[in-house]
Amino acid sequence: MDCTTVRTLLGFARAGELDDAERGALQQHLDACADCAAHSQSEQRFDDALAAAMPRVPVPSGLKTRVLIALTQARRPRPWPWLAAAAASLLAVGLGWYLWFRPAAELDYAQAAWEVDVKTAATPEKVEELFRERGFAIQAPREFNFELLDSFDDVEFQGRRVPRLTFLFRGDRDNRASLAHVYVLSTSHFQGQDYRESTATHQIEVRVRGDFIYFIIYNGSSLEPFLRPAV
Amino acid sequence: MRWPGTKRKIEQLVQAHYAALYRFAFRLSGAASEAEDLTQEAFCQAQAKFGQLRDVHKARGWLFAILRNVYLHKLRDRKTANAVALDDVGDIPDRLPEPLPDIEPQRLQVVLGEIPESFRTPLILFYFEDFSYRDIAEQLEVPLGTVMSRLARAKAFLKARLLVPVAANAARGEE
Ligand SMILES: [Zn+2]
Looking at the partner chain, which of A39, A47, A63 has a beta carbon nearest the beta carbon of B36? Predict the structure, then answer.
């Protein structure tokens, strides 16, 4: 076997494409030919160096969570049909300052991956603490009945990540469940004033409380069922 | 259509492969933000056609192939501005310097960016993911011999660009 053939066969050897006889012959040549042996070792060292360098890529933190969220979004493009309708009608209205809250395309109804089982943790204080751990200093809407808190997460809202609390009321007199999303907006990011709007499919209520604006969108006839019973 | 259990299975795939897929995407595209987009898009497509994954042991290769297709799709709109002819490699030392200098990951990325995609992908797959030549041939849907020759040329290019002294690179008018 000549040296040129050997150089070619080395490539096949790396590919694992040599049979026993070919491998034997190759090894025999390498044992006898210092040049080819050195070449082979040199190739091997280069392979090792490349194999070491190639995967050295830092993976951004939170990537897995973001992938999972993307998958959830892809699974449920329209998780709440009535809310999608609401978003569309909001666009249609487009009145004054209210444009601030034009949520149509930006509203993100995906369930964020860090939703926790709030059945064991449903107090305003606990929710505030969990949001604080995520970097959101918020004041939870204390007038709401936190026993009805179904989930919470941070979502995209008008170009910002904002906390969102979802309250679920299972059945009123009509025996229909209703849902209230409360977006907790900081007054340093958004301007707004108390506001109320009612359509056939949903209600909007904006409540300004100190440094926070609660942008509430819900179905059902009244917000009353979601609120803490007056003592 | 999906069937029960898909959600859990796809999440297991994410868990097992997201980091590798991201690294592959980064080496392909050379940019962190693009790599993240590619990773997300690849998993979304995988979810949508999860039923096509016949053998769960081949999930990794399947995901990589999906990601590459996403990448190629995006690439089609753009010119591969940096790509040079692979023959333009200059002198390749037959013997490498002793000891072999460490290959700096960022420098590697620059040189990878100069290699046409059809050569770059097999190279990344081979060194990064430990896919066999046969796996790569299957994934790229090209003959084994093609994979081997592309790998050999890409590797020669890398060797010349990575191991020649920095001064020589500077003389080529880059960086
Ligand atoms: Zn020889």
Answer: A63
